[in-house]
Batch of 2 targets.
Target 1
Amino acid sequence: MSIPSFDSTAHSTYTQPPNPSWTYGQRIDTTPAGKAWLEGESAGWKVYNTAEIDKANLMKLLNSGVVPRPIAFVSTISEEGVTNYPPVISFACNHNALGRLKDTTTNLKNSQGFTVNIISEPFIENANATAIDAPPDFDEWTISGLTKEKCVQIKASRVKESAFSMECELYKSIDITHPVTGEHNSTLILAHVKYIHVRKDMLTDRGAIDLTKFKPVARLGDISYGRVGDAYRLARPSWAQEEAKIQETLTTLASL
């Protein structure tokens, strides 16, 4: 398959939300884009039974459907002092088709601490190299081309190239077992974030991270990754400001 070369000149921009004139109670089919979206319903739905679907296909389905996801690029250290990168892990969706736990899970449960380092475009290939299925005693730092940086409190290193890193201590780990088979191949990790390291040039005057500079990478389905494209700002509605308008809308809808 022939695809274009990577465009290093592209950058994220902000736009209005897709339907800035939306009002309470407005249905999807009131806009051209909404009508086009609903036309897809005519093809129907395919329903997957997770107890019957092949595990590899289930993982493929989850990884391509739960997108985009922020990426946790986690640095840990074993009790024997062996440092480790895991395969690049997503925060939200974790189904292990191989039926085995990663080295990172074991390391996360020790008392050495761990770091979560957000990946940006300039070093995605470096991060991807650490996803190799190496044996447990192999140090992925040696092939990553990335730099270990000392943390304030924990023993594990953070990734110096990452513009946003979190020093964490384990708060609680919960082993997840399949409700039918009892198989254990996932672990929920709850972390206590002790310190956050942010590059100064990434910060806006308001103390937020500048998306156009940060260039975070998202994990998609299959072997695909994505960049953040156009973003839009959409304020959360306030009941104090919107109550009258909502009540008026409900009254109008009730009279139809």
Target 2
Amino acid sequence: MESPNASIGEETSRVRKLEMSDKSKGFIDLLQQLSVCDSVSDEEFKERFQELRSYGDDHLICVIEDDRSGKIVATGSLFVEKKFLRNCGKVGHIEDVVVDAGARGKQLGKQIVEFLTDHARAMGCYKVILDCNENNRVFYEKCGFKQKEIQMVKYFI
């Protein structure tokens, strides 16, 4: 699954699925711009990558690679929750959307969210949901999302 090209400066890049080689292209560094993400060894990355790949289309991580630098400059993920509600329906959960600080303002985040939303729709999800902080609310509203209820969390670490 690939998207139409997104523009990064003068170059064009596409949204695509995460590949094993993306660790060396700054994927983990990019995640560190979003939240706590300690160093991940090559072996840990390989094991997690293979685990997530085994879920097929029910778990998708996508990226945008800057063609000029070869660095991953945007990413996001979607997992599909299978429910008993809504006639055994499915819900898409968007997570971990981040655009490199140096590449913001170029519609890359929108490309990522649209790619993930399209995937959720193609998987038969009746809705797609996400959590975000207040600073990102307007961005997600521009992507077609609306605020509903509140988020609760309980951390174990």
